[in-house]
Design brief:
This protein is α+β, with helices and mostly antiparallel strands and 144 residues long. It has one domain: Alpha-Beta Complex (Sufe protein. Chain: A). 41% of the residues lie in helices and 17% in strands. A 3-stranded antiparallel beta sheet has the order 1-2-3.
């Protein structure tokens, strides 16, 4: 558990430093993956996130953010269902709200230029943490 906390804090620090504006990035397409979250961790939820960033003239011009179950299954329109059925409406709604937040986070990164200026969506904070971590990894690959 301590290793996970240290990893999360390190990734968040990397995001903070990456968004300070002092870094320059090489043009290209870069991918980053967050740490894996499991249900037994504080806050619940499980899986990981991946971003694909396109950088042009040193700025993020495109961002795609996807989330996955621990086994690599994409979290899509069936996320929150059990056996293909909605058995718990509240859980399904929360899962789909988190699912929808992915596009918001990606668009906000392109619009605002860094993760520090993006507000987390209520009910989708684990996704936000995964997003920030994955962005930090991708930007570290893009550093000049």
């Amino acid at each position: 558990m301590k290793k996970i906390i240290v990893s999360v804090l390190a990734a968040l620090c990397a995001v903070s430093f990456a968004s300070c504006g002092s870094k320059t990035y090489k043009d290209g397409t870069y991918t980053g993956k967050s740490a894996e979250f499991s249900e037994d961790q504080e806050g619940g939820g499980s899986g990981y996130g991946e971003v694909t960033l396109t950088i042009k003239d040193g700025k993020v011009t495109e961002c795609k953010f996807e989330t996955f179950e621990l086994d690599g299954t994409p979290k899509g329109e069936d996320y929150g269902k059990e056996g293909g059925e909605i058995k718990n409406r509240d859980y399904y709604n929360k899962a789909q709200k988190a699912n929808a937040a992915r596009a918001y986070y990606a668009a906000e990164l392109v619009n605002k230029g860094n993760t520090d200026e993006i507000d987390a969506v209520s009910g989708a904070t684990i996704n936000f943490d995964q997003f920030k971590q994955a962005v930090a990894v991708a930007l570290s690959e893009a550093e000049k």
